[in-house]
Amino acid sequence: MMNTAFKKIECSDKELIQSFTLPSTLQNCDLAFANMCSWQFLYDSEFAVIDDMLLIRFKIEDKKRTAYMMPMGNGDMKKAVEFLEEDSKRLGHPLCMLGITPESKSVLDRLFPQMFHYIPERDFFDYIYLRSDLVTLSGKKLQPKRNHVNKFNKLYDYEYLVISKDIVGECIELEEKWFNENQSADDLQELVEEHRSMSFALTHGKELGLVGGAIRIGGRIVAFTYGSPINFNTFGVHVEKADTNYEGIYAVINKEFVSHLPEQYIYINREEDLGIEGLRKAKLSYQPAILLEKSAVMKRR
Fold first, then answer.
1. Taking each helix axis from N to C terminus, what angle separates 188-203 and 168-182, rounded to the nearest 10 degrees?
2. Distance, C-alpha 218 to centroid of its chain
C-alpha cells in the first residue's frame, strides 16, 4: 500500500465516505457520517482511501494517542490493517482499534489468528431496535411506553415538524435551556462538547445528510431529535432533547420520529449509554433487539 496522507473529515467528504459506509453490514453508530463530522473538533478525526479501503483514525486520551476504526471497503483487508499498524508505529504507539464488533472480530481473527487482544467496553455498546417495535410499541414489555404516549395525546394538542432551517434556531434555544437546567460540575465539560457538536450538526444539517423532527405545543418547540443513516438498513439517532415538564414527551418524540423515517431502515441504532445509569435504564426499557458489543482491540505483545 502506498502511504497516502490522512486528511481531516469535513462536510464535503460525505459522498466519498458514505460510498464505503452505506453498503457495509456494520451497524456501529460511530460510522454515521454526521457523527464523524460533528465530533471532529474533539477527536481530530481523519480519513484516507487507499486501494479501495476506507481508513479512519482519531485522537483519544486528550489527543495524546491515535486510535483507528475497522477498515471498510472491497480492497485487501489484511493489507489495510497492516497499513494501520505501520501508521500507528510511526506515531509512536502499538495499534489500537476501537468500536470492534463481533462481525469485525471474526474477520480479524481469520486474518490474524491469535494476534489481537479484545476488551469489551460495555459503556459503548450500541442499543439497536427494530423500527417496527418503536413505531407500534406493541407487546406487554412496551405497554408503559404506550401508556406514556396515550396520556400525552390526551393532555396536549401538538404538531410534529420535520426540522428545517426555519426552526433550527428554536431547537438550539431548547437545547440551551436543557443545558442550563441539567449541567453540573461533574459533567460540565461533556455537556459543553455535546452542545458544540449539536450546534454544528443543526447548522450544517443539509451538508451532513441529517434528518430531524420536532414537536411544537402552543407555538413553542418542546422537543427535537435528529439522526442520519449508518448503512442502507440501519438509521442512527444521534440526539434527543425535550422539555420534561411535558410528561411523556420523550416517548412521543421517539415514536413520531421513527414513524416518519423511510421504511428501508429496519433497524434504529440509539447509540451508547456511556455508563450513565439513568440512560442505560431508559435504553434497556425499550427492549433492544441487539445490544451491539464493541471492543477495544490491541495487538498482543
1. 180
2. 31
As a whole number of angstroms, the distance between CA 171 and CA 221 comes to: 7
Q: What is the DSSP string of 1-64?
A: ---PPPEE--GGGHHHHHHHHTTS----GGG-HHHHHHTHHHH--EEEEETTEEEEEEEETTTT
Confidence of residue 5 (pLDDT cuts 50, 70, 90): confident
The x, y and z cell numbers of residue 161, run together, are: 415538524
The DSSP letter of residue 166 is T
Residues 6+ apart with CB under 8 A from 200: 37, 38, 41
Report whether pLDDT(301) > 70: no
State the cell numbers at 10: 469535513
| Beta-carbon count within 10 A of 297 CB | 23
H-run or E-run covering 126: strand 126-130
3-class SS at 197? Answer: helix
Q: Indicate the pTM of the whole model.
A: 0.95
> What's the chain's length in residues?
301
Between the two ends of the chain, the Cα-to-Cα distance in Å is: 24
> Which residue stretches of the chain are H helix?
14-21, 33-38, 40-43, 77-90, 102-111, 131-136, 143-155, 168-182, 188-203, 205-208, 249-259, 277-285
From CA 91, how far away is CA 66, in angstroms rounded?
8
